[in-house]
Write a structure and sequence with these properties.
The structure holds 2 protein chains of 2 kinds. Chain A is α/β, with parallel strands linked by helices. Chain A has 6 helices and 13 strands. Chain A has helices at residues 14-22, 33-37, 50-60, 62-65, 78-82, 180-191, and strands at 3-6, 27-30, 41-44, 73-76, 84-87, 92-93, 98-104, 113-119, 134-140, 142-143, 150-155, 159-166, 169-172. The model of chain A has no long low-confidence stretch (mean pLDDT 95). Chain B is of the alpha/beta class. Chain B has one domain (5-244): Aldolase class I (TIM Barrel), CATH 3.20.20. Chain B has 10 helices and 11 strands. Chain B has an 8-stranded parallel β-barrel with strand order 1-3-4-5-6-9-10-11, surrounded by 7 helices. In chain B, helix 1 packs parallel to helix 2. The mean pLDDT of chain B is 92. The chains are: A alpha/beta, B alpha/beta.
Chain lengths: 193, 251
């Protein structure tokens, strides 16, 4: 299986690569359009600021390519947020895969949310053998509200989308690569799609 | 519900753990990677590696260590100690660190916080603050509490937040090493006046101390070193105890 982690200069992608290797697979870091299009699975990572990450995607033309991919694609953290319609962070448009707008947590909670929270209302094969209320690791200041494409929710002052799915596109707000055994399970579920 | 975090801290010198560790099952008690794996298995929520070496080789050794930890460990970890530039941080994050912690370099050059946040985002920039009370006033100290500065804890913490830091790691030098509990009054004030997560550090001696710092100190996470290294407190049993006290934890 050919797994490509999109390398567009945003975020800690080493950890994702290591997590995939721990599961017994190999992964390639790439920003090459053909290599991405020919992959069996594509992981779209992202840590950092939304509008500058979108700039990097546009500069490399990947903003046009990613929404056209046909194989399973997993956006992680900012990667998931960039797959939405827009983000309040830097007021940027997104890739418009998920029909939801990313907004900022209000100041009734500490921002960023850092740490282990629980996922509930699990709805997809992505969560096969994962129990309700398992803890996963998140670090974020912006969130996708609940929408038709929500496949897991999390509660931080309010309920929001911990994961999204549309057709072959998946997104997790949490970091499966940093979420201990539960995260490894979820990552493996994705790789087995 | 967001869980309160338990964070073992490993002191590193020239790529090795320095504080005596009491793990009988360790093949190599000085290997930070092996220790990290054990803590991760036992249920630690996060790890902090604090580099206290001061050699020329330091940067490369630390970067190598970060790479090896990231290879093996599937929980988040923070790296601190002597980090003073965007380039330093770039290498550590690139090698797989989730967060970096800066201390003296931020006090000497507060603009560094803004620069790091602009380049890497708030979520991975932790500012560590060491402070102790002088005439009833919390004063920020450098060099492990040896050198007082002119900065007052609460003002500095506010400035750190405004400059974009994602988290504060507050060590009370008055409590550190006493095993008498965390500085809960100061912690509660930080947690109330600021709107970013606060990690409590300094003073852990027993399980009740952790419970107290989460309830009275309103801390979001608690960090300790020797009580974990010497197995005076097991992470698993600590979390079970906290859960019984009604504190949300990941068990």
């Amino acid at each position: 299986m050919k797994i490509v982690i999109i390398n567009y200069g945003a975020g800690n992608i080493q950890s994702i690569k290591f997590a995939i290797i721990r599961l017994g697979y190999e992964a390639v870091l790439s920003n090459d359009v053909q290599e991405i299009q020919n992959a069996d699975k594509v992981i779209f990572p992202g840590v950092g600021e939304a509008s500058s990450a979108m700039h990097k995607l546009r500069d490399s033309g990947l903003d046009k390519i990613i929404p056209t991919l046909k194989q399973p694609v997993l956006g992680i953290c900012l990667g998931m947020q960039l797959m939405c319609n827009s983000s309040e962070e830097g007021n940027t448009t997104g890739l418009r895969i998920f029909d939801v707008d990313v907004v900022k947590f209000d100041d009734t909670v500490k921002v960023p949310q850092i740490g282990w929270n629980q996922i509930t209302n699990l709805k997809s094969r992505l969560f096969k053998d994962v129990e309700e209320k398992e803890h996963i690791y998140l670090v974020h200041s912006f969130y996708a509200p609940i929408c038709a494409e929500t496949i897991a929710t999390c509660d931080y002052g309010l309920a929001y989308s911990a994961a999204l799915k549309k057709d072959n596109f998946y997104g997790t707000q949490f970091h499966p690569e940093k979420s201990s055994d539960v995260g490894q399970r979820i990552l493996e579920n994705f790789l087995q799609m | 519900m967001l869980a309160k975090r338990i964070i073992p801290c490993l002191d590193i010198k020239d790529g090795r753990t320095v504080k005596g560790v009491n793990f009988v099952d360790l093949r190599d008690a000085g290997d930070p990677v092996e220790l990290a794996e054990i803590y991760s298995r036992e249920g630690a929520d996060e790890l902090v590696f604090l580099d206290i070496s001061a050699t020329e080789q330091k940067r490369k050794t630390l970067a190598d260590l970060v790479y090896r930890v990231a290879e093996k460990v599937n929980i988040p970890f923070t790296v601190g100690g002597g980090i003073s530039s965007v380039e330093d941080v770039d290498v550590l994050l690139h090698n797989g660190a989730d967060k970096v912690s800066i201390n003296s370099s931020a006090v000497k050059n507060p603009q560094l916080i803004n620069n790091l946040v602009a380049k890497f985002g708030s979520q991975c920039i932790v500012v560590a603050i060491d402070a102790k009370q002088i005439d009833g006033e919390w004063i920020v100290h450098l060099v492990g509490g040896k050198v007082p500065t002119e900065r007052k804890l609460f003002e500095w913490a506010k400035e750190v937040e405004e400059r974009g830091a994602g988290e504060i790691l507050f060590t009370s030098m008055d409590n550190d090493g006493t095993k008498d509990g965390f500085a809960n009054e100061a912690l509660a004030r930080l947690s109330t006046e600021l709107n970013i997560p606060i990690i409590a550090s300094g003073g852990a001696g027993n399980m009740q101390h952790f419970s107290d710092t989460f309830i009275e100190g309103k801390a979001d996470a608690a960090l300790a070193a020797s009580v974990f290294h010497f197995k005076e407190i097991g992470i698993q049993e600590l979390k079970t105890e906290l859960k019984e006290n009604g504190i949300p934890v990941r068990v």
